[in-house]
Write a structure and sequence with these properties.
The protein is 46% helix and 15% strand. The protein contains 23 helices and 15 strands.
């Protein structure tokens, strides 16, 4: 493909920009999200051939197909660096089959044991390469501060990916009290001179909305550039550079299943994804657009079922919706940013419609799509939600039935897949985190406790690492990754909690930059 330009979902950019500019900018002018002008197509033989090369080369081939403005040799080298011995399985994203038609795509073999590593071991390298290219061309004269809102896993993965990257600092915000002990310690113990972490008094939507408002504050952007030589950018999945690596693993999984004889080339599969911000399932949609034989996308929600309700009704409404804390905190999200990209594609790229709906969401906390767009949604997506108790039951069921231990997010997808799938179509279930990131609720599940039940006093007294060791012992060989097992021995570096408003976030950024 010739060089592919990127346009924005709200039609605010007069011209398309190259991949390198889209990655460095993060968010498009006017608040829209970047999407490629053209979606490349791969023949089924090309997809299946990916099974015969290492994962890094699979990623490189997908990147090349998108026509990004970096030399092919550099793309190859960056992908080799991204997917190497930093993953604890040489297959990087292996597929484990529970039975002949139920397949688990394990996305948690990276350094932070969550699927976000699949993109965030890659994005920092492409970000740095993009910035170098733009500086060489005289298009860039600043360094960057990456600002990330996280519901738990993105934060650590972004910190690990950007730590030590030249010309880049990174600040991460997480909802105070809204992440697991393991997730908190992963972020709070992060090494590196270019990293900072803040708890936010509120939920993830407060973090995400605050971050978006900071990005839209032009006066603040001018101040950062004038006083500190800094521009803000994003590593959330609003950045196309975060989203594109996720496309790779769905194409890769299909090739793996054909190679092992679980599918014949061209057979359709369903893909079930536990999702809150909609990025992971959107990547499966783009894989489908590229030619991967995906029949339906199964959207799995927890009790914060805003996406399930939207897919089933065509109305996105958070005006009076309570925010529920669940055993799956990475899905505790009411404002799903990447849905904007999905609707842009399903409206035939109607930026006027997208801009109107996003304005309705911002002002009225709801919007309703038109009939044609709703029919397009239903042609690709079905959805179900799983309540907290059923989520824990699913962990126990999968372990008893298959001897497979999964985390609560994966369990939501496993149960939704059972409810939604067609009997004659195999399903790939995206497993988004190692079980040991959520040991407290895995323990509850295995011992028949309800989500609201307190842990036994002796168990509650354990640290997250100690609890994981207990679960591993009880389940007979469920190994805990080294990066999680060693957390108790690392010093806590970051404990500050700030308010989630735009002004408070900006003050925290200035304080950090002033001390560098």
């Amino acid at each position: 493909m010739a060089e592919n330009l990127f346009i924005d979902t709200r039609g605010a950019c007069a011209e398309g920009v190259a991949f390198t500019e889209a990655v460095v900018n993060g968010l498009a002018q006017g608040g829209g999200l970047y999407v490629p002008t053209a979606i490349p197509e791969m023949e089924i033989d090309e997809i299946c051939d990916l099974a015969h090369v290492p994962y890094a080369q699979r990623a490189s081939r997908v990147y090349r197909a998108f026509g990004i403005d970096l030399p092919e040799a550099e793309i190859d080298a960056l992908c080799e660096r991204a997917y190497g011995d930093n993953f604890d399985d040489e297959r990087v994203a292996p597929v484990v089959s529970l039975d002949d038609s139920t397949h688990i795509l394990e996305l948690w073999h990276g350094p932070t044991s969550a699927f976000k590593d699949m993109a965030l071991q890659c994005l920092p390298l492409f970000f740095s390469a993009s910035a170098r290219k733009l500086r060489a061309e005289g298009k860039l004269g600043v360094e960057h501060m990456i600002l990330v809102a996280t519901s738990g896993d993105t934060g650590k993965a972004a910190l690990a990916g950007f730590s030590g990257v030249e010309g880049v600092s990174i600040g991460v915000m997480y909802p105070d009290g809204g992440v697991s002990d393991i997730q908190f310690k992963q972020m709070a113990t992060q090494r590196g001179d270019n990293v900072v972490v803040w708890g936010v008094a509120g939920n993830f939507d407060d973090c995400q909305t605050g971050a978006k408002n900071v990005f839209k504050d032009s006066a603040f952007a001018d101040r950062l550039e004038a006083d500190y030589g800094i521009a803000l950018s994003s590593a959330n999945s609003i950045n196309w550079g975060r989203l594109m690596p996720q496309i790779v693993y769905y194409v890769s999984a299909y090739a793996e299943l054909v190679a092992k004889g679980a599918l014949r080339a061209g057979d359709e599969v369903d893909v079930c994804v536990p999702t809150g911000n909609f990025g992971n399932i959107l990547a499966a949609y783009y894989a489908k657009r590229m030619g991967c034989p995906i029949r339906m996308l199964l959207c799995a929600s927890n009790e914060n079922r805003v996406l399930t309700d939207f897919i089933n009704t065509g109305t996105y409404d958070i005006s009076e919706r309570p925010f529920v804390k669940t055993p799956t905190p990475s899905m505790d999200i009411l404002v799903s940013s990447n849905l904007e990209r999905q609707l842009f594609e399903l409206t035939g790229r109607d930026s006027d419609a997208i801009r109107g709906w996003m304005e309705d969401l911002a002002t009225e906390k709801r919007f309703r799509i038109d009939r044609d767009t709703f029919q397009a949604v239903r042609a690709h997506l079905v959805a179900d939600s799983v309540d907290n108790e059923t989520c824990l039951d699913a962990i126990r069921d999968a372990h008893e039935r298959y001897g497979y231990l999964m985390d609560p997010h994966t369990a939501v997808a496993y149960k939704a897949a059972c409810n939604l799938r067609s009997d004659d179509v195999p399903v790939i279930i995206a497993s988004t985190a190692h079980w040991a990131k959520f040991g407290d609720n895995v323990y509850r599940a295995l011992h028949g406790l309800k989500p609201t039940d307190p842990l036994p006093a002796d168990v509650a007294a354990l640290t997250g690492c100690q609890l994981n060791a207990l679960i591993a012992s009880e389940t007979g060989g469920s190994d805990v990754p080294t990066g999680l097992a060693e957390l108790d021995g690392l010093p806590i570096r970051f404990t500050e909690v700030i308010e989630g408003g735009t002004e408070c976030i900006e003050e925290a950024l200035i304080e950090y930059l002033s001390k560098r």
